[in-house]
User: Which sequence fits this backbone?
């Protein structure tokens, strides 16, 4: 009789556990679906704003001196800073709403204040050169310019720091040790 009571109690708790897991899974799926819908709406809103800005004849126009920075071949822990100079060639103030990199090892900083027509400023980029190997990263610039999203690139190659070695003394194996 005890075994039967324990078996029924075990089945009861197992059913409750499975039901709770299914309920949590359904809630998780619903939350993911709502998040996706929210992102889709945000994307559509950004697209509508971009289309409106592209048709504005007075919209800011952002032009860069360069769209790519080549570090070349540098040593590990070298200076990983570079700058991208830009100018607002439009008729309205330019606002950089976001500048983000493709990786956490690349950190951009940008002006938060509006850039008036005819004025210039810079986006500074710091790459963490402690990593060895080929550099190929992108920086995405989002603004209210006629072309609302631009991509900047950094590239190069980081060589490992040279290792220090103790000089070796040449040993003459033919001679015998001298005791004094």
Assistant:
């Amino acid at each position: 009789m005890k075994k039967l009571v324990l078996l029924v109690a075990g089945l009861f708790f197992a059913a409750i556990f499975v039901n709770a897991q299914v309920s949590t899974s359904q809630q998780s799926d619903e939350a993911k679906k709502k998040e996706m819908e929210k992102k889709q709406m945000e994307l559509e809103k950004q697209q509508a704003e971009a289309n409106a800005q592209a048709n504005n004849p007075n919209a800011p126009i952002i032009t860069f001196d360069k769209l790519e920075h080549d570090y070349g071949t540098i040593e590990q822990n070298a200076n990983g800073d570079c700058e991208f100079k830009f100018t607002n060639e439009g008729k309205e103030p330019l606002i950089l709403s976001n500048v983000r990199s493709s990786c956490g090892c690349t950190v951009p900083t940008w002006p938060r204040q509006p850039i008036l027509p005819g004025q210039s400023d810079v986006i500074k980029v710091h790459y963490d050169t402690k990593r060895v190997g080929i550099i190929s990263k992108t920086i995405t610039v989002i603004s209210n310019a006629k072309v609302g999203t631009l991509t900047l690139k950094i590239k190069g190659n980081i060589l490992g720091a040279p290792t220090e070695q103790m000089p070796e003394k040449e040993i003459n194996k033919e001679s015998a040790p001298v005791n004094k």
Strands lie at 62-64, 68-75, 81-88, 96-101, 106-109, 120-127, 133-143, 149-159.
